[in-house]
């Protein structure tokens, strides 16, 4: 297995795609149910192959990854050749960027000395693996709303 097995919830969300995947192996619902019982190792192998297929598809796209922790907001724009990072940081221990209140505080205090913003970029060592590692360290895929908003803010203040 190249990546990580999809969760039960992820498989449920992709049940139609998984059925199509199984159909490519000429396996219908009845055969799949039998395979899980009689040949669990084969079923596990198919689950792993499908998981890798999904991860490979996701990781080839330009996407955004966010990682929130109480005092830092890491926003990644994952392009084809490089990864752009915007880091929003506060030294205010009473602020928690993992909460809605913390995000609202950040938006209100963006211009204050209580918020520091850094930008960086790096070329990938291995694009798919670098992005996958971000996700395994707690990052989550996003639509890029925070990234785009803060990038726009930085563009106006430069």
Count of the domains: 2
Task: Calculate the mean pLDDT score and round it.
Answer: 93
Q: Summarize the helix and strand pattern as letters.
A: HHHHEEEHEHEH
Gyration radius, in Å:
20 Å
Count of helices? 7
The largest β sheet comes out as: 5 strands, antiparallel
Low-pLDDT sequence parts: none
Task: Give the strand content.
Answer: 15-25%
From the structure provided, what is the oligomeric state, counting identical versus distinct chains?
Answer: single chain
Q: How are strands sequenced across the largest beta sheet?
A: 4-3-2-1-5
What does this structure look like?
The protein has 158 residues and is an alpha+beta fold. It folds into two domains: 8-59; 63-157, no CATH class. Helices cover 49% and strands 22% of the residues. It has helices spanning 8-13, 15-24, 29-38, 40-59, 100-108, 127-136, 145-157, and strands at 63-69, 72-78, 82-90, 115-123, 140-142. A five-stranded antiparallel sheet has the order 4-3-2-1-5, with helices on both faces. A hairpin with a 3-residue loop joins β2 (72-78) and β3. It is elongated and about 65 Å long. It starts with 7 loop residues before the first helix and ends with a helix. The mean pLDDT is 93.
């Amino acid at each position: 297995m190249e990546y990580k097995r999809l969760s039960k919830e992820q498989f449920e969300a992709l049940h139609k795609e998984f059925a199509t995947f199984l159909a490519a192996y000429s396996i219908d619902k009845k055969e799949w149910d039998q395979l899980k019982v009689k040949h669990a190792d084969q079923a596990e192998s198919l689950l792993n192959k499908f998981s890798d297929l999904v991860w490979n598809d996701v990781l080839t796209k330009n996407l955004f990854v966010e990682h929130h922790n109480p005092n830092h907001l890491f926003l990644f724009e994952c392009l084809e050749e490089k990864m752009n990072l915007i880091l929003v940081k506060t030294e205010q221990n009473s602020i928690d960027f993992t909460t809605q209140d913390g995000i609202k505080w950040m938006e209100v205090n963006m211009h204050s000395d209580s918020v520091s913003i850094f930008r960086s970029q790096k070329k990938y060592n291995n694009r798919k693996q670098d992005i996958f590692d971000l996700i395994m360290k707690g990052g989550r895929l996003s639509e890029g709303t925070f990234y785009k908003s803060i990038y726009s803010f930085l563009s106006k203040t430069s």
